[in-house]
């Protein structure tokens, strides 16, 4: 596999979060970027991304940790766990850090037989034992523990001409995205046509990621889906394809419903990553992950 294909394979963690059952068996489809699993880079990046929420980052009792509102969360074998859970990381899937390709679309991955077998095994294991990530860190970071607490953080805003319910954290960022998209309409006919073809924008939805026991970023109000009036016979989601073909990741971009890259670039500028660049592609989906983009910029 080339470097981009390897990065995209690691990005499967965005969906599977490395099934806990597989991790317990010592099998790792998704190694940490660069082979360093100390957590130093990841925890420092989180502190950079959320300076108003993370009070400090330090090495505490042998592990890198961040302090959120007076509570320490520790890097524990790729998980981010509170003190009470840090000694049993095998109970949880890894936190979702992965290389994200900025700029143009990456080449479609070409997986060898061994990697394909591992990928299919991971999917099979995930169906039997849906991966579960510890939610403690994100719930503390966003003030979004229970559903009631989460909903207290939500506001309804106008975005691209539609009402959407989102976490107050991203209201300013979405306003910037909307303003730049409005300007883009005037100069980019492809973007203007795309935006005119939207039927709705979905935001908050209190649910797990499909096929997992892990909260979706929609459940925090930190993700949005751009829904068109018509997909034009194309696929926007990997699960729509996997039931038809075994190697769904090879679906050509021209056969996928795509967001213009000029619009994707605006979202990325303001802290959102696009599911269209994932191996487990979801071209409708954007989620707020400034830490992923900081890592991508090096």
Tell me what you see in this structure.
This protein is of the alpha+beta class. It has one domain (3-31, 98-296). Helices cover 34% and strands 18% of the residues. The radius of gyration is 19 Å and the shape is globular. The chain starts with a helix and ends with a helix. The model is unreliable at 1-34 (pLDDT under 50).
List the helices and strands and how they pair.
Blueprint: H1 3-10, H2 13-16, H3 20-24, H4 40-49, E1 54-60, E2 63-68, E3 71-76, E4 79-82, H5 113-128, H6 136-142, H7 147-151, E5 154-159, E6 162-167, H8 171-187, H9 189-196, E7 198-202, E8 223-228, H10 238-242, H11 261-269, E9 272-274, E10 285-288, H12 290-296
Write out the strand line-up for the largest beta sheet, numbering strands in chain order: 1-2-3-4
Low-confidence spans: 1-34
Coarse shape = globular
What structural class do helix, strand and pairing data support? alpha+beta
Mean pLDDT: 87
The amount of beta strand, in percent, is: 15-25%
* Biggest beta sheet summary: 4 strands, antiparallel
Q: Give the helix tally.
A: 12
Rg from alpha-carbon coordinates = 19 Å
Order of helices and strands: HHHHEEEEHHHEEHHEEHHEEH
């Amino acid at each position: 596999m080339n470097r981009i294909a390897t990065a995209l394979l690691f990005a499967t963690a965005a969906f599977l979060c490395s099934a806990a059952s597989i991790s317990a068996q010592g099998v790792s489809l998704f190694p940490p970027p660069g082979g360093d699993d100390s957590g130093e880079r990841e925890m420092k990046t989180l502190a950079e991304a959320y300076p108003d929420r993370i009070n400090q980052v330090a090495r505490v009792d042998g592990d890198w940790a961040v302090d959120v509102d007076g509570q320490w969360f520790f890097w524990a074998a790729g998980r981010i766990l509170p003190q009470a859970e840090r000694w049993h990381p095998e109970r949880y899937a890894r936190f979702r850090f992965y290389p994200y390709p900025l700029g143009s679309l990456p080449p479609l991955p070409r997986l060898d037989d061994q990697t394909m077998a591992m990928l299919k095994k991971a999917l099979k294991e995930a169906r039997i034992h849906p991966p579960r990530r510890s939610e403690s860190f994100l719930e503390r970071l966003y003030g979004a523990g229970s559903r009631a607490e989460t909903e207290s953080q939500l506001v309804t805003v106008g975005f691209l001409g539609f009402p959407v319910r989102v976490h107050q954290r991203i209201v300013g960022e979405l306003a910037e995205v909307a303003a730049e998209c409005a300007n883009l309409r005037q100069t980019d006919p492809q973007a203007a046509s795309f935006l005119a073809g939207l039927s709705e924008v979905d935001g908050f939805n209190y649910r797990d990621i499909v096929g997992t026991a892990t909260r979706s970023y929609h459940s925090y109000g930190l993700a949005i889906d751009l829904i068109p009036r018509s997909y034009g016979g194309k696929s926007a989601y990997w699960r729509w394809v996997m039931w038809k073909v075994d190697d769904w990741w090879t679906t050509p971009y021209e056969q996928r419903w795509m967001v213009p890259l000029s619009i994707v670039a605006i979202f990325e500028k303001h802290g959102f990553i696009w599911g269209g660049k994932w191996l487990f592609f979801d071209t409708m989906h954007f989620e707020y992950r400034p830490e992923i983009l900081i890592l991508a910029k090096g």
